[in-house]
UniProtKB/TrEMBL annotation:
Protein name according to UniProt: LysR family transcriptional regulator
Domain HTH lysR-type, chain residue ranges per copy: 1-58
PROSITE patterns registered for this protein in UniProt: HTH_LYSR
Keywords, alphabetical: DNA-binding, Transcription, Transcription regulation
Family: Belongs to the LysR transcriptional regulatory family.
């Protein structure tokens, strides 16, 4: 059985479409379809059933997943063995929530690419949990550890969040000296029914029941705060990127959350991915510490 056909089979299984697999593999959908048909002829069974939602695995297709992934790991190991002394090269796709993706990973990617010029880093910013089983990314940063799946989970670092507002807003509205004062202010937060992880439910920490402006994106929330639209809970590591934004009641409203690095269990056999995971973890820890230290030292706080 041709490994290249199995590679295409895995791409279709993970994306559930010919076009999605084609984009991932750099080939057109019709070519993907022909290769799947060839593989089905070789095994003597249909591997996919076309449904309104896309291409679903048949029972025969599901049985082929494990041996195909084993072949994939063997191919990766063989590739690494031929370039062991060539440094870290090739593509690394990292999935992350948009706070991490916008405010941490650009600097982390810059430094890793400087250290390893042959490395290509793709940052996938998604307002949901990245699906590693479908290989949406090689590894993912999450705000809580998953409780299902064949995954390797590593705690990265704690990070801090505070209530914040822009100086323009704070200077033109009544002073805030206590939690009770917040009821007279506009709040900015997540769209309640689009909170994909319980760790992101920040509004309850303020004692305010609803927000005037909401978004499923941390970056949009920060831009609304920068525009002077109201107050919101923000990552301390994002504040250095938002001139004029100051923490409010930092001694009364202070949250601590954690980032977790998640990998597919099969990738433990990959020396390259293991080393990249170690470097990524070190870099994220260092960048969170660097940015939070800036906030502590610069006095970005009121009240």
């Amino acid at each position: 059985m041709d490994w290249d056909d199995l590679r295409i089979f895995l791409a279709v299984a993970r994306t559930e479409s010919l076009s999605g697999a084609g984009r991932r593999l750099g080939m057109d959908a019709s070519t993907v379809g022909r290769r799947i048909a060839r593989l089905e002829q070789a095994v003597g069974a249909a591997l996919f059933a076309k449904t309104p939602q896309g291409y679903a695995l048949t029972a025969e297709g599901a049985r082929l997943i494990a041996p195909a992934e084993a072949a994939e790991q063997a191919a990766i190991a063989a590739s690494e063995a031929t370039r062991r002394d060539a440094g870290l090269t090739g593509q690394l796709r990292i999935g992350a929530p948009d706070g991490c993706a916008n405010y941490l990973l650009p600097q982390v990617a810059r430094d890793l690419c400087r250290q390893h010029p042959g490395l290509e880093i793709q940052i996938v910013a998604l307002p949901r949990v990245v699906n590693l089983t479908k290989r949406e990314a090689d590894m993912a940063v999450a705000v809580s550890p998953p409780d299902t799946g064949r995954l390797v989970v590593q705690r990265l670092t704690d990070y801090r969040l505070h209530l914040a507002g822009h100086s323009d807003y704070l200077d033109s509205h009544p002073a805030i000296t206590d939690l009770a004062d917040l009821k007279g202010h506009r709040m900015i937060s997540y769209i309640p029914d689009m909170i994909f992880d319980r760790e992101l439910d920040y509004l309850s920490e303020t004692g305010v029941e609803s927000a005037a402006i909401t978004s499923n994106s941390v970056s949009v929330q920060m831009q609304a705060i920068r525009a002077g639209s109201g107050l919101g809970i923000v990552h301390d590591f994002a504040i250095p990127f938002a001139p004029g934004v100051r923490r409010v009641l930092p001694d009364r409203i202070a949250l601590t959350r954690a980032f977790w690095l998640i990998r597919h269990a099969d990738d433990r056999a990959s020396r390259r991915l293991t080393l990249l995971a170690e470097l990524l973890a070190q870099a994220i820890r260092a960048e969170v510490a660097r940015l939070e230290a800036q906030v502590s030292a610069s006095g970005h706080s009121v009240a």
